[in-house]
Amino acid sequence: MKNLIIKLFISTLILTGAFSCGRSDTQDELIVFDYRKSYPEIDLKLSDVADVRIIKMGGVNQGYFVDVRDVTTSDFYVNEKTERIYTKQEKDIYVYDFNGNSVRKMNREGRGPQEYLMLLEFMVDEESNTITVDDAMGKKFVEYDTLFNFKRNIPYKIPTQKNLFRINGDTLLVYSSFKPHHWTEDMPHYFFLISQSTSKLIKQINIAFERPINDDPYYFADLFYPSLIRGKDGVFLTNKCCDTVFFVNNKTLEVAPRFVDATNYNTTECMTIPALETDRYLFLQTHYDLKLSFNVEGSFYVYDKKKRQIFRLKVDNSNPPNHSLSLLNNQCALSAKYQTLSEGFMAVFFRATFLIDNIDKLPPETQKIVKTLKEDDNPLLLLIKIK
């Protein structure tokens, strides 16, 4: 049934002119993937597509970092020009230099008019000297300068967000994962665009989901992958109830289908989605749940835009489930969850105890660094700059 739907979908696109095999613009091609197919293998190295550096967070004084489990790369901003790294832990924002030394710790938690109740997400614009905090409980954006001096509040009346991206000047692309108790029919839902400066709705992005939507917050609150994934000149839109991944163009704000996973996994917790897009490649990752899909493993693929072909990436599956050690071994085990708030950068944190326990699986140069670590040391950061 799923294959029939895919064929009808592609036929409709061809008839309407939205998709053509003869187009030279590979940016608009609809890519159809099937996990059951045997794709040719390619040994593409991480160093072929990115420059990497390993940074010991906290530097000499071990400042600020508490626990790597509290840090995700969706809460991570890097500016190569100023050599500054911003990252969030709970209600604090920490700033480091490129040597891992702590620069400052910032916190404005509280109930005052210049404070936030809950630091859900943040955005940094060093050119305009602005850090914007998404205060989900206070239902407002709070703007500070980069030293965390207060600028202004921007109240909003939009549902709780899971992801948000600035995609076009003042425009924010938002994913709201469920209808909160105060939701009303005039509120946007799932994917939509708002103005950051006014928090007003620009437009709702209407996507037809292929499976019924469950608005239970516990069902949607913790997906295994991001719902907004940065691509080349735009953002991919993913949802566990939709096998089609759509793409929003940064400049035109137009929405079009870009990728379809035609696989029947027998569970909504498994899906192959984009992980990273470069000029030449679209990297893909199969997300899975060990309890729900015994015959599916976390695999990595790449679509070569020049050859117009999907390849299976050579990645060592004997590494721990998250495959992060494969990155340290120069393999392209790229995941959307490693994307940062800064375009062109991915990042992975490694707990000291994890690296010490797996030192025999690391390359010689990394082993030298790990041998200097103690179990209670701050994590190492693998900073990946896409070429």
Automatic annotation (TrEMBL):
It comes from the Bacteria. This is Lipoprotein. Pfam families: DUF5128.
